[in-house]
Amino acid sequence: MKLTISASILFSFPLLAATPQEEIATQVPQAKAILEAWQAKDPAKAEKKVHIVYWTPADREPAPRYRERLDKIMADIRDFYAREMKGLGFGPMTIHLDHAEDGLLKVHVVKGRKPYAEYKVDSGGPIRNECLATLRAAGLDPEKETIVIFCNMSNWDAEKAIVSQNSPYYAGGTNRSGTAWQVDSPILDLDSLAKKEPRVKDGQYGNISIGRYNSIFIGGICHELGHALGLPHNRARKDEAEAFGTALMGDGNRTYGENLRGEGKGSFLSLAHGLKLASHPIFCGSVKGIDRPDNAQLKDLKIENQGKSFTYSATVTADPPPYAVLGYMDTEGGGDYDATTCTAIPDANGKFTLEANALVPGKAGVFRVVVLQANGAASSFAGANTPFTYPYLVAKDGNVDLAATEAKLTLAPLLEAVAKNNASAADAEFAKVEATKPAASVLEVARVQVASIGAKPGPTPATASGNTCALSEAATKSMKVGWGHAAINRLPEDGGLFSCGSQLFARGIYAHANARHVWDLGGKWQSLSGHAGLPDGHDGGSVVFAIKADGKELWRSKKTEEGTLRSFKVDVSGAKELELIVEDAGDGTGSDWGCWFDPELSVSR
To answer: Are the C-beta atoms of residues 255 and 266 closer than 8 Å to each other?
Structure first.
């Protein structure tokens, strides 16, 4: 992958952004032409469906009228996708459902092995496992189908009009298969979606109308089904929201059908996600190449600062052919729910340009790039496990800072050599970097990365000489991380750099929660300073950092998510032992890539 970045420090004139309607009118016909041409040659047609399971604990019978209610709800969701895809210019492409001989939705009923009390929100895996035998008996391969499991895990008190749920409520999938877990309740009913009365008290959402309840939970089915079909989160850009409402894969699970009550514009499907669904076998009816993995390659990549936006250009090659490229502008914090999108269609030579112009002033973020291929495969060039996440920082006046991305692109060949522990290649790449006369901070990062190959810890802080001591280069008493292996001055992945909120650091300590690093200080140091956070590109995690000396807690951070940098300076005078601790923030340790950036001991306060 060839990478370049504009060397000019001058900004280009601002780009004149197309309206959402202009984007749709221009890009969709181009994407359709690529898709239709590929699918027409040696076609492989098949009608793949979304299959419905109704799961109930051993001590519960299904909720009243479950089949009639789910039939109407899933039909409405089918019509929503058809309406949105037609509005985007793809025609009424939508999901297909399985129906029984009586015309109602076919529902596979599964009785759980245990009573209600033994299932929780995180019981999705065990519940799915209990459904597998029934699906296989019906001739379905659960690993090759898209499945929606309605869990009978709500509690409805009709006299008090109180409802609560303790159900799995999430989803995931690809173009080949997926699973969505939902919750059913006796008041989940399409006929109530337009009603402002009566009111119900929901354990999570409070005192709401019956219509609002159904917006949230029918919208939730539609949203989670999107995940099962391979759609990530994204929110509407300002121009999209003004034109269409709330993006389904953002907060659109809460606004579904609110237009029926005159309470808003309702939910819509973004162009980015319409483009992705256009190649999904369930939507397009083609299973040609369904098992072929993504294989897109980029070359001649260029990122150019446009002042208050930036462009990302490259040439893409892939087989099956690429028909669209998506860019996600993922602002710090909030997981990926607040990621806005931009889209482009490769020309006949594979060239494309994404315009990242929906940035948030005063916020850092990460730009993620996804290539869509005609068989439904999606190639990401900005996942957490690749060197090609693109951090950016937006000043309060809206101007963009791409310094961290510049460093990442400049150092990409060197980082590849370091990841392979190839010292000679790393030295050669360092010489190339040095010859370009980069910023001093970039050169220091390069120097530290090369030195990390085969590096052994220096003396302990207790025996170190001098007035300062970099903890990342000092011998520890012990170190433990919650995932992967302990790593100093590098992340345990190919090409990872220590950057947070688009701020670059030369040294760091990888400390995925739950983590604990301990040093012998010998009572000779007075202060410890540095920063803590999650490295750019590792969205979805949240941690809490803590510092202890001789067992006494000196500092504790607030809950910390990607893009938020915590700085500290604490007094360690006379301390014999130092502990740096990273805890999960109460929501599990998934993606909890805690890091300590440039932690340094000093003899001065």
So the answer is: yes
Every domain of the chain and the residues it spans:
3-14+287-401, 48-284, 406-451, 468-602
Q: Where are the beta strands (DSSP E) in 217-266?
A: 246-247
Domain spanning 48-284: CATH 3.40.390: yes
> In degrees to the nearest 10, what's the CA dihedral of 281, 285, 287, 293?
-30
CATH of domain 468-602: 2.60.120.1060
> Which one of 2.60.40.10, 1.10.720.60, 3.40.190.10, 3.40.50.10490 gives the CATH number of domain 3-14+287-401?
2.60.40.10
Query: pTM score, two decimals?
Result: 0.85
Strands (E), 395-514: 400-401, 468-470, 478-480, 487-488, 498-500, 503-505, 508-510
CA–centroid distance for 480 within its chain: 26
pLDDT digits (tens, 9 = 90+) for 102-156: 999 999 999 999 999 999 999 999 999 999 999 999 999 999 999 999 999 999 9
Taking the C-alpha atoms of residue 155 and residue 220, their distance in angstroms, rounded to an integer, is: 18
Identify whether the C-beta of residue 461 lies closer than 8 Å to the C-beta of residue 521. yes
Yes or no: say if 442 and 450 are a contact pair by the CB < 8 Å rule: no
The mean per-residue pLDDT over the stretch 43-69 comes to 97
Burial of 7 (0-12, 13-18, 19+ CB in 10 A): exposed
- 144 closest CA partner among 156, 152, 132, 155: 132
